[in-house]
Write the structure tokens for this entry.
Amino acid sequence: MTSSKDDFFNKVYDVVRQIPVGRVTSYGAIARFLGAPRSSRVVGYAMNSSHTQDDVPAQRVVNRNGVLTGKHHFPGTNLMQQLLENEGLDIIDDQVQNLDEVFWDPNIELER
DNA sequence: CAGATGACTGCGA
DNA sequence: ATCGCAGCCATCT
């Protein structure tokens, strides 16, 4: 099926699913991997619809700062932080620590 | 159809 | 170094 823009969402979900446990990535990295470095916001929008996908660990997707910008979109209040900490990550003040160590860039790991 | 919003990013002051 | 503004693209109202 020749998909259309829906394929973009699908690609986003696919990349997010490939994020290893204990790692995180940024919206811009995913957007860039999809060939749309300027569509970082659209990636976030796709995550907003990620609730339709059960296999999308959206908690592993943070902004370029390593801040859990989308944590407010999760049920509860600190669920996103708890999930990441459960994966072995250190979160302080809704911000991922050692971001350089846990950062997972699809453009590098997947070598585009 | 047009305007506003958003889980972002980069540049300028 | 910190704060603010503009750009970009898809969806929502």
The two ends of chain A are 23 Å apart (CA to CA).
